[in-house]
Backbone:
């Protein structure tokens, strides 16, 4: 086996890990793939004969690429009020043998990285996000994170601590047993299908937040607050609710509305204390078409 084949083999062994790092850093599957591809290109241009831990070297390269991408994204984001949700990882709800067990290993990066967590991560600065993701999710020591950020290990630790505090303050990142989570989602779906306003309000937290990235059947993108407002919005889409199927969205119970082989809306729900505190909806037909082809829709809804 020549050096190129050896490098390719070693890289492929780390690809899923690198994609997991990039996805948590970027919240975009396409951008994660781009970051991983750029990591491969840099590997082919580098002499790594003296590298003792290739996994750590590749992780560092991927993290730095993602950091640059996050910084570029921050500079071109013109409208801070625009609704843009992270890419979801959607799998079949029937795939779970036990609702209280972890998601299947093949569910790409779904465990411990719910859509609500990615939304909160997107509010962090690029440096906070890198420090938190690498240390708290992938156990990279601060001695290695500091140089990536041109900071001391102590400064990197402070960045991660600040990010951790922001996450703790956000109710939507709370962990809920999946069986209870599914019960709440099912209750919301049943009330939506029946157009029962009172039952909708009962299942929603008074301060619930709804984010809808749309442009399609649901109208313009929206950011709504409060149980009454969100329940009134849900009543407008009773017909859509009747087309909804249970799925896992980043490992947590969610809903996919589909008809004639096309995805119409994807709904992710965050639950705390038995009520919904956050609803994230992707209903942009262009984006849904990119995320789901007809075969995927059929597999998820059969």
Residues:
């Amino acid at each position: 086996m020549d050096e190129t084949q050896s490098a390719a083999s070693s890289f492929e062994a780390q690809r899923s890990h690198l994609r997991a790092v990039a996805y948590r850093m970027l919240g975009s599957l396409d951008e994660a793939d781009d970051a991983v591809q750029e990591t491969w290109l840099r590997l082919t241009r580098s002499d790594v004969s003296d590298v003792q831990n290739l996994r750590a070297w590749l992780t560092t390269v991927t993290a730095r690429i993602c950091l640059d991408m996050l910084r570029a994204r921050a500079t071109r984001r013109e409208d801070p009020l625009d609704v843009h949700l992270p890419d979801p990882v959607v799998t079949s709800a029937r795939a779970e043998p036990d609702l209280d067990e972890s998601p299947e290993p093949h569910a790409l990066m779904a465990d411990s990285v719910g859509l609500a967590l990615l939304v909160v991560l997107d509010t962090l600065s690029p440096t906070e996000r890198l420090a938190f993701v690498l240390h708290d999710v992938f156990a990279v020591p601060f001695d290695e994170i500091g140089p990536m950020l041109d900071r001391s290990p102590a400064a990197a630790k402070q960045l991660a601590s600040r990010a951790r505090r922001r996450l703790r303050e956000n109710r939507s990142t709370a962990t809920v047993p999946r069986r209870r989570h599914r019960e709440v989602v099912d209750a919301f779906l049943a009330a939506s299908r029946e157009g029962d306003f009172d039952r909708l309000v009962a299942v929603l937290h008074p301060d619930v937040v709804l984010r809808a990235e749309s442009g399609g059947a649901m109208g313009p993108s929206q950011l709504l607050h409060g149980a009454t407002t969100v329940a009134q919005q849900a009543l407008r889409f009773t017909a859509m609710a009747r087309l909804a199927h249970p799925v896992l969205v980043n490992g947590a119970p969610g809903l996919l509305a589909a008809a004639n082989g096309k995805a119409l809306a994807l709904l992710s729900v965050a639950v705390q204390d038995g009520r919904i505190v956050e609803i994230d909806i992707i209903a942009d037909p262009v984006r849904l078409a990119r995320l789901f082809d007809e075969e995927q829709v059929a597999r998820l809804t059969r």
